Amino acid sequence: MIGKTYSATIVGYDGTLVEIECDIKKGLPSFSVVGLADKAVGEARERVRSAIINSGFQFPAKRVTINMAPADITKDGTHFDLPIAIAILQTSGQLLPSATNGTLFAGELGLNGKLRSIRGALAITETAKKAGLKTVALPVKNAKQAALLSKINIVGFTTLTDAVLHLTGENIVKNTILSNDDIEQRNDTEIDIDLADIKGQETAKRALVIAAAGHHNILFSGPPGAGKTMLAKALAGLLPALTKREIFEVTKVRSLTNSTDKVMTKRPFRAPHHTASHISMIGGGSRPSPGEISLAHHGVLFLDELPEYPRQTLEALRQPMEDKKVQISRSAGKSSYPANFMLVATKNPCPCGFFGDPTKECICSQTQILNYEKRISGPLLDRIDMVVNVSRVPQKELLADEKPNKNTKNSAYYREKITQARDKQQQRQKSPNAALSSKKITTLANLTDSARKLLDSAAEKLELSARSYFKVLKVARTIADLNDSANITESEISEALQYRQQ
Ligand SMILES: [Zn+2]
Description:
The protein is built from 21 helices and 18 strands. It has helices spanning 39-54, 81-91, 121-130, 140-146, 160-168, 180-183, 202-214, 228-234, 244-255, 278-282, 292-295, 311-316, 318-323, 366-374, 378-382, 395-400, 411-429, 438-444, 449-461, 466-482, 490-498; strands spanning 2-11, 14-25, 30-34, 63-69, 103-105, 108-109, 115-116, 135-139, 153-157, 218-221, 269-270, 283-284, 289-290, 300-303, 325-330, 333-338, 342-347, 386-389. The strands form six sheets. A five-stranded parallel beta sheet has the order 11-14-17-10-18. 45% of the residues are buried. The mean pLDDT is 91. The protein binds zinc ion.
């Protein structure tokens, strides 16, 4: 008899169904795995053999062959241990073949038969659902993650024995079901930096609220010590809670890195250092994994001191910023990961940091300043809607009072306003304002006559490029949404003009 179980292998963001066949023949005892298995799968033989024996089952003293199909796709990962073990138990008559019908298995086995959590549980579960399978059996630690996908049964096991006793009906394990507690975001207790805690910087704080409300990429320019990093970090507390769909996608990406088996309920805030490798930023590698730009999906990618990042990395950001996903070429073909992030970046005005500072003198030459500016390419700047100059807060102001200013609203207050503005955009155009095309923003702008006149004369006077013109329009639309105004008036245009690149 030939036993058969299902599993999945992960290619980029998604999985492919894998059939695992087991054949047991008379002859000298051996155990081989065929079908383009990688090193981790090759090592599965030792883990599976020990796990079966140490769980009190019998490992056949015959020729055992495992075939994984389709043969032309590399089978990557340690999660094939469980489906291989189940196929062997089935073929050797220790489990009825019908017991595994309609089930996909995934799990890494320890030598003692314990199941260890795996990478890509959500991509694997999705594959099972697409293939029309009814149940996914996997390590209990991954069960909640997998249960983010509805309309498929998830059963989590602690050991190989648990899985077998469930399949024989001797000890049924209940399906894992998510409660609201599992996916609820407790934002208020998780805010690191509240807007109310930042002294001064009123323009920058206002710009941050606008950027959050329209998903606009934003660049803070200013000397060291101006609080640019603090401002960027405050953004985490301003963005709306993740939707269920977003929780699913954020968790799915994170689970592909092996760094968590939890459900991710917090909007990502990724702050990779400028020395991070190209692959860790963009994604890829010999064993492909999502990069920082994908780990920031539905959240914030914070690049502190933008000009310090390698040119190659900055250029590689352009396409994902346009397409909201990143394509990765590998020897085995192309794969892609989602990368819909909001870019928040900072820069100094010059290499020494004090160009234009009222109290400290800049020591850079004109050439040094120009070269520094050139490190951020035009096309990348084109994709940044708002540029805000931040100056140092005078020492006096910082020390003025220890208590927070009563007039400064806290992040929770602004988050509610921002969420309302985002909801408006969702209802109106199914996307944030930042994602609007030039054509679409023109029809949705609703400029009053005087606002149009102001924008046109400013465009002429300031020699705005077409791109800058539409950026101003989009930012003005977001300000109008925050003001709960159907029209864009003069006040929204003149405020939006402040945030353009000078
Ligand atoms: Zn300088």
